[in-house]
Write a structure and sequence with these properties.
Strand content: under 5%
Radius of gyration: 21 Å
Largest sheet: none
Number of helices: 5
Structural class: mainly alpha
Oligomer: single chain
Length: 112
């Protein structure tokens, strides 16, 4: 009985560790993206916030439709890559590639 109890405790601890790692990785992925409009420091006035929102909307107009949808869902609505992938019926890797491509394109547009 003690050996069976020992084996049971060993696997219970391993399952607990695996669950903890999965939750930790999910938290890292979830917190990696920061929705754009959720962060509004108190020292910026209403006019500056409005100008930033208008500027973001103007930048977004130059993106392809698929990229625009992905950027809006991740950064403006605060969804994770997995949630966006599920909604659009594409892989999470495809969402990640689109996101990186669109961010690169936005940085090129904004630096001109």
């Amino acid at each position: 009985m003690s050996q069976a109890t020992h084996i049971y405790d060993f696997y219970r601890r391993e399952i607990y560790r695996i669950g903890w790692r999965v939750q930790y990785q999910a938290k890292k992925v979830r917190t990696r993206e920061c929705p754009l409009y959720d962060y509004e420091p108190s020292n910026i006035n209403f006019a500056a916030i409005s100008e930033q929102k208008i500027w973001v909307e103007q930048l977004m107009q130059d993106l392809p439709p698929q990229g625009k949808v992905i950027i809006e869902k991740i950064y403006l609505k605060g969804l994770t890559e997995a949630e966006v992938a599920k909604q659009l019926n594409i892989s999470q890797q495809a969402v990640n590639k689109w996101k990186r491509k669109m961010i690169h394109q936005l940085s090129q547009i904004s630096n001109c």
